[in-house]
Design brief:
- The complex is a heterodimer of chains A (234) and B (122).
- By secondary structure, chain A is of the alpha/beta class.
- Chain A is built from 10 helices and 4 strands.
- In chain A, α7 crosses α8.
- The relative contact order of chain A is 0.14.
- Chain B has one domain: SH3 type barrels (Roll), CATH 2.30.30.50.
- Chain B is built from 3 helices and 5 strands, in the order αββαβαββ.
- In chain B, strands 4-3-2-1-5 form a 5-stranded antiparallel beta sheet.
- The mean pLDDT of chain B is 93.
- The chains are: A alpha/beta (234), B alpha+beta (122).
- Chains A and B meet through β3 of A and β2, β3 and β4 of B.
- β3 of chain A pairs parallel with β4 of chain B, so a sheet runs across the interface.
Chain lengths: 234, 122
Amino acid sequence: MADHDHKPAPMVDEVSDFEILELAVRELAIEKGLFSAEDHRVWTEYVHTLGPLPAARLVAKAWLDPEYKKLCEEDGVEASKAVGIDWVMTPPTHFGTPSDYCNLRVLVDTPKLKHVVVCTLCSCYPRPILGQSPEWYRTPNYRRRLVRWPRQVLSEFGMQLPEDVEVRVADSNQKTRYIVMPVRPEGTEGWTEDQLAEIVTRDCLIGVALPKPGITSNAKRPVLKAKNPVHHDH
Amino acid sequence: MSRVEHDRTHHAKIATGVGDPQCFKGKAGKAKFKVGDRVRVKDRPDIFYTRTMTYVRGAVGTIVRAVYESPPAEDEAWDNTDNVVWFYSIVFSQRDLWPEYHEVYGGDTLETEIPEMYLEKA
């Protein structure tokens, strides 16, 4: 009845149900010979080397080289090789990653078209070229709302788009993974590839932010209190 | 009862050094649809698993690219790779997906991929 009757959330580190499930599935897979414990170690180490820098580099290169930009549009997997990512051979499996596959598409923005990426079904994300997805990308909140109210969600990220700019949501529901190539911003004339790559942040590559001279990191997510918070009675 | 031994590393064997979906290239036959075709997403029944979202079912969109060939996830979830089909990237008008989507933003779109067996000519 009264709020103070709530048991406090446990403060100890606990293993979640999902972690237990992962452990159980992993041990079964090793037992059945799908992969070895050594494979798993190698894989984990590979995953920790990943980040958004190759994708940022790809965009910067494309801004400077129209031929390369065309290749990015036509064949993202081939274009990735120029920034050191072979979608097939870079992962230790040599057949891509178990959930990312080998089919990158680069969604090229124009002044009248803005792309933004989501995976409504789970959390598909172009990890080989962009690293691990941010926590908010995996939340049901982002996944459910972005497809239906993209402009509202983008405005929560600080992006207000005029009516005459088409918003195109890409829902990565199958084997293609997407990155967004934003429009090169004003004020970057004469910049080098290194300088340009610095302003292409992870958020720009997902499509929830626009590159801006001087901005080289992702904006802090606002934490909004729930209007109708859930009350537990246990 | 005799039991057929199933090779659980079958997928790894065909995809190693080649990639997935590349390893299924050329196995789906002729694509039924082409870029520019208007198609409707069928509301097929699925047993336990699907990657064809409820929100696109029944909606009409335009094919913008035949992306690759692959077994549909609905089969692949059960390690069945026998039936390779074409996948298409389809652009929908947001107004056709969500009844309340405002006409002011009538140009807004959503792009996603659907396997061929879910599509019919609109």
